[in-house]
């Protein structure tokens, strides 16, 4: 049995969980000790305002957006070339440090600001095959085709729905009290640390649904096509970073190998922190399948806001986060060029405030501290 990925659906067109209720219902969530309620009528108005904001941005897309992404690609390539060149002289410590830092930054920009955003279709309107969501491949172990399904479709359609969104725990961690506790989760902090340092491989294995294999719901044979894709991409990345470039360096091979490993570690830790701080800080909400039955577009928006958190920082910080520091705006409008999120964030926040919807934002250290606290807390059976 093989599995064919359907990457044609987006949150705008994807099917929502099977409905049993003929009419939408009032939604209520308790956030920070306060109950947030949204009636179907309020959700409809909420959705109309956010739809209008999205349409205004789409109508304004043009040369400014094209110039931005092309500059990011040029900067990323310059950092990679310069970093790899400096690593060839890595026996001199300043060269090694500079080369490693430049290569790490190039991998972060490639994954966060270019790859992730391009594969969301944010620049498909340009008609440039080099940055087409369908054809783009990034510098990480996860095959782009599998990412487009597990992330663009599954995660962005079923955001924070326990049992539907596999980003809730990545099949490895307990990140919600609604996930049934088992002794394995006593290792939650350790599994989280390992996921952080090996993040590109954790993401690569995401589509494998390893927890279903462990529970014998499916077998490895059922995932043969997925496994083949993971193996091809992982082998390609391993040969490039850990064999080809070190060999090209000749006697400097050990320094190049160490630099490449460190650059990948930089990217893994940074991506993990940004992504987890966008999804799991204190007061970010999870949802049940029952809560999201007969969900309207406005209620989908409501879930995206409550299921996300932003990070505060400067322009460079936002670029290095792939503008996922505006996770709320990204979850609302995943196909809008991400650098536009800084511009529309005040408008989104204003809409949320007028409808009484909490807008979760804060600095990286504070948000990450609450993530770590949640990981440790949910390791215990009484939580």
From TrEMBL:
Pfam families: FA_desaturase (PF00487). One of its GO terms (cellular component) is membrane. InterPro entries: FA_desaturase_dom (IPR005804), Fatty_acid_desaturase (IPR012171). GO terms for molecular function: oxidoreductase activity, acting on paired donors, with oxidation of a pair of donors resulting in the reduction of molecular oxygen to two molecules of water. One of its GO terms (biological process) is lipid metabolic process. Residues 95-361 form the Fatty acid desaturase domain. Residues 1-26 have a biased composition (Low complexity). Keywords: Membrane, Transmembrane, Transmembrane helix. The chain crosses the membrane at residues 85-105, 184-203. Residues 1-33 are annotated as: Disordered. The keyword Transmembrane applies. This is Fatty acid desaturase.
